[in-house]
Amino acid sequence: MRLNYVETGPADAPVVLLGSSLGADQGMWAPQVDVLAKRFRVVAFDHRGHGGSEVPDGPYTIDDLGGDVVELLDTLEVEQASYVGISLGGAVGLWLAQNAPDRFHRFALLCPPSNPAENPQMWTERAAQVRAEGTQAIVDATLGRWFLPEFKDTEPVRRMLLDCPAEGYAACCEALSTTNLLPGLSTITAPVLLITAESDTSVPPETVVPLATQIPGAHLEIIENAAHLVTYSHPEVINPLLLAHLG
Ligand SMILES: O=C(O)CC1=CCC(=O)O1
């Protein structure tokens, strides 16, 4: 699988991978990249079916999405990296922490859905809607979940969602419909920073807070007055937390 990625920062610095949310591309990390690139070789990538990555026909699985990231490390000839992921990218991070522990130093997982398979119908219906009508059918509702009304700079994210290939978006919804990462949480050995947003209706804090006791040694931060895409709306809060955790 050929994943699109953008590298920033010194080539000899420790590597940090950035995994995006459903329907967005690596450009969503713009508020983080320059800050992280002062210390790290930052590799912001597009999941399969998203941005400039290949768009195979779905359905995809979480094994596909996680396996793509391991393959990306191989392509980059990087033995070990740290990983920051939000939303779908956070679920992929939970998979990597459980299935490829030897390839990662540390994880920062923001608003990660840990058991979206709990409500498979919601995801398969959304997949069918997007295949039939395109991503424009879900853009307004998505932005309504991702940002509080007072956050106005949503246009770049709207553009990303509209540009996302319908098949890629739908196939990732199908991946979520079969994903349950709860059983393996206690096997995670890497240091994990969990971040949840107080007003996140996509991945509510009630589903993230318990992970902090189920993942050994995990550290939890709850961001007040913020919704799902907290990296984009609150970089002044998130960036220092990421730098402190990634070391
Ligand atoms: O609200 C959304 O569409 C974003 C999302 C991706 C995974 C998830 O659980 O929510």
TrEMBL record:
Domain AB hydrolase-1: 14-235
Highest taxon of the lineage: Bacteria
Entries under SUPFAM superfamilies matching the protein: alpha/beta-Hydrolases
Xref: Pfam families: Abhydrolase_1
InterPro entries tied to this protein: AB_hydrolase_1, AB_hydrolase_fold, AB_hydrolase_sf, PcaD/CatD
Signal sequence annotation: none
Protein name, per record: 3-oxoadipate enol-lactonase
Species for this entry: Kribbella pratensis
